[in-house]
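Lab meeting, item 3. Inverse folding demo.
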């Protein structure tokens, strides 16, 4: 994804720099840096001057490089080397030989104050473009290459400040001209920092890139991955940046959304129902689409929060009935959990087919034994719907029977309050025999607090 995006984005930056320099980025910069003719008493001979001009004016890039090689072999310490290096990296850029672009751009930039700010900028800018096109993290020298590029990108940011604003440009126009290369340098320094596992540094660079290019979906994606890679992970900031990327509908939106969903699931221990993860994702993307800054009060329960919710109460039903933040956390904690031997009173029985049926049942909200029993006896409407699967003998149950079932909690509405259980089975001990013996009484079960759940 990085390579495809860079090629599209770099093209836009290239155009921005063309406006910034008054011509094309590959040729307009440093036009005032052409060597003076030898008759003006320069620090080089007429032979050097003529041989350089012959190489520089060669239209074929491949032949131009051969001519430059010939020049350097004859004049290895020539005062014209600043012009030679520039002609080299421009020729290699034409040929898309990016390692050589980097090599000669580095030689040019290393001359420091021997060349002017525009020329140093051009060298560092083309080096950064070349790095983006060419670099791969699988290279054995990746860390060294990333470290060198981060230094070069920072040097590029610094040299931008030294280029004077053209007299014919307004402050706003000049700021727009600087935005493209500033974003490119910072983004690339951020990518280099990721390779070096300097995640706080990567965050700093990506955020700087977003200051001048606030609608860049890919930079938000990289910012999110940097936050999540920190120790400890800055999860909420990471989720927000990823959601911001999704909301901006970048070229890889489906992949980023899938990645964010996976990260949310991992953050919550992989134990939350799929539809709830989807709801959290939708809410997060919607909110992040309205602002780049995450509200301090916004949070998503982590796996530890959900474990606490599961373990801190004897029965989760009162929390779900309450709703609000408590109910939201408890529903996240319990949805998809399987609970054994949940004691309920049957209010109605709805056959589905030969082996399946639905029990409409009541489970009290009280947490003490006496209160639960009184609620059970007074109930007139169900607060649970239990889908019994593959248990035809459960059809022998009758209304008002008190039974225990094991099932997976899959649905919840607060008003009217109703819980839905799937793939459930009634405890076989609670199902009467097919033909009860004369005088046999149905078993009566006492209600108990919520048993431990399993996922």
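The presenter then showed the designed sequence:
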């Amino acid at each position: 994804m990085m390579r495809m995006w860079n090629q599209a984005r770099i093209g836009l930056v290239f155009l921005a720099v063309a406006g910034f320099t008054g011509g094309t980025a590959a040729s307009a910069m440093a036009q005032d840096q052409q060597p003076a003719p030898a008759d003006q008493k320069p620090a080089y001979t007429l032979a050097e001057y003529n041989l350089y001009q012959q190489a520089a004016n060669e239209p074929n890039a491949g032949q131009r490089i051969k001519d430059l090689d010939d020049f350097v072999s004859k004049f290895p310490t020539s005062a014209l080397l600043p012009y030679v290096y520039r002609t080299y990296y421009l020729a290699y850029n034409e040929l898309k030989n990016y390692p050589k672009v980097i090599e000669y751009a580095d030689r040019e930039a290393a001359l420091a104050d021997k060349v002017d700010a525009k020329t140093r900028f051009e060298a560092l800018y083309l080096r950064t473009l070349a790095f983006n096109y060419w670099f791969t993290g699988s290279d054995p020298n990746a860390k060294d290459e990333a470290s060198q590029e981060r230094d070069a990108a920072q040097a590029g940011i610094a040299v931008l400040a030294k280029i004077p604003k053209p007299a014919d440009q307004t402050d706003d126009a000049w700021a727009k001209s600087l935005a493209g290369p500033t974003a490119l340098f910072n983004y690339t320094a951020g990518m280099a920092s990721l390779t070096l596992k300097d995640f706080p540094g990567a965050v700093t660079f990506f955020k700087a890139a977003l200051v001048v290019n606030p609608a860049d979906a890919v930079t938000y994606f990289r910012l999110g991955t940097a936050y999540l890679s920190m120790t400890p992970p800055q999860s909420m900031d990471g989720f927000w940046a990823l959601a911001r990327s999704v909301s901006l509908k970048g070229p890889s939106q489906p992949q980023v959304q899938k990645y964010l969903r996976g990260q949310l699931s991992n953050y919550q221990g992989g134990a939350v129902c799929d539809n709830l993860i989807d709801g959290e994702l939708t809410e997060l993307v919607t909110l992040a689409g309205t602002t780049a800054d995450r509200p301090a009060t916004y949070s998503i329960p982590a796996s530890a929060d959900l474990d606490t919710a599961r373990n801190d109460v004897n029965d989760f039903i009162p929390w779900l009935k309450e709703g609000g933040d408590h109910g939201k956390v408890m529903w996240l904690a319990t949805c998809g959990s399987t609970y054994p031997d949940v004691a309920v009173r049957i209010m109605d029985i709805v056959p589905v087919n030969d082996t399946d049926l639905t029990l409409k049942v009541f489970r009290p909200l009280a947490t003490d034994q006496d209160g639960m029993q009184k609620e059970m006896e007074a109930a007139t409407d169900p607060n649970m719907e239990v889908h019994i699967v593959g248990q035809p003998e459960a059809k022998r149950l009758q209304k008002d029977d008190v039974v225990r079932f094991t099932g997976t909690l899959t649905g919840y509405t607060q008003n009217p309050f109703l819980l839905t259980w799937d793939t459930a089975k009634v405890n076989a001990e609670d199902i009467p025999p097919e033909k009860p013996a004369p005088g046999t009484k149905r078993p009566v079960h006492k209600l108990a607090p919520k048993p431990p759940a399993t996922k």
